[in-house]
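Chapter summary example.
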Amino acid sequence: MTDTLPLHGLKVVEFTHMVMGPSAGLILADLGAEVTRVEPPGGDQTRRLLGSGAGYFPMYNRNKRSICLDLKAPDDLAAAKALVAASDVLIENFRTGTMDKLGLGYAALKAVNPRLIYCSAKGFLSGPYESRTALDEVAQMMGGLAYMTGPPGRPLRAGSSVIDVTGGMFGVIGILAAVEQRHRTGEGQQVNCSLFETTAFLVGQHMAQMAVTGVAAQPMPARISAWAIYDIFETADGASVFVGVVSDAQWKAFCKGFGLALGDDASLDLNNARVLARDRILPEVRALFKSFAKDELMAKLEVVGLPFAPVSRPEDLFDDPHLRSGGLVPVTLADGRETFLPGLPLEMGGQRLGVTRDPPAPGADTEAVMAELGLRGPVA
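The structure predicted for these 380 residues follows.
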C-alpha cells in the first residue's frame, strides 16, 4: 500500500521527457510520492523511440499517472497551472526558456504556490554554458568520462545513460533537501541539477589524483592499477571472470585457497610490492584461472572470499538468481506483455520498493486528474 511508503502524500507534477527528468520522478514515485506526468496530446515522443531508446519509457515511468494537455491551448494551460498549484514538487527537463515561454517558469508559479519546489534538470548549471543544449553523451565527452572509459585515443561513452540517471538522482537529493528545509521555513525553492556538473563530480577522483600526484590519470584500460590482481581472466570454457585481490589479507587467503606458491614469498606480502611485481604474478594467475571452468572458478573464489564477477550482458540479469530474489519488479509493457525490470536499489524497513502502477498509457488519468482539480475535460 502506498500509504506506508516514506513519501506518501507528496504530490509531484512532471513536465519531462527522455531519461533525466523521468528518472528523478521515478525515484520519488517508487518512494511513494503521487507523480503525475503532463504529456502532449498522443503522449510523450519518448514512448515511440526505437533502438537503444526503446527501453526508456517502460524503465523510468512506472508508478506514475499520465495526463495529456496541449499547453498551447488556454484551457489546457490553465489546467496545468491548477495542477501545479496543488502540487508540492515540479520536475522539468526541457530546453532552457521553454517553461518560461509557457508561463510555467519558477517565478510565475512561485507567485501562486510559494511552497512549490521546482526542479529543473538541465545540461549545465549557471555559468557560460548554461544556455547550451546537452545530452548524456555530450556531458560524458566534455566531462572527461568518455576519455577515462575508452582506451587511449578512443574516447568511449559508458554503456548506459549513466549521467542522465545520476543527474536525476542528484535532482532528487536536492528536492528532498528542499522538502526538509520547507518544513522549517514554509517556503519552497528552485533546485537545479545538471549533466555536465554531474560528470565532473564523477570524475573528481581522477582530478584529485592529478592534484595529489602531479600525474594525469590515464584512461581506465591503460591505467596502472592500485592492485596486482584486479583484472578480467579467461577460464577453461572460454568465459571471462573479473577477480580482485585488494588487501594483504586477501592475498594470503587467495594463495592459500588456490595453493599458489607465490604466497610463500615474503617479498610479496605487501600490496605495493605486488603491484611492482605484476609482470611476475599475472602470468601465473592467468594460467591458474584458465585451468578452471567458469562456474568452478567462481565457486572457489566465493569460498575463499575474494571479490569476483562474471562478465555479464544486460539480458543475463533477467535470470540472475540474486536479482530474482527481490531486485526485479514486474512491469506490464505497452503491448500487454509482462517483464521484470530493476527496482530501486534500496531496502527500507527491511522491505524492497515495488510497483503499484504500470507505466501509464498516454492520458490514462486525464479524466481523474481533471475531476480532482474540479475542472472539465481538456481541449486535447
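To summarize the output: The mean pLDDT is 96.
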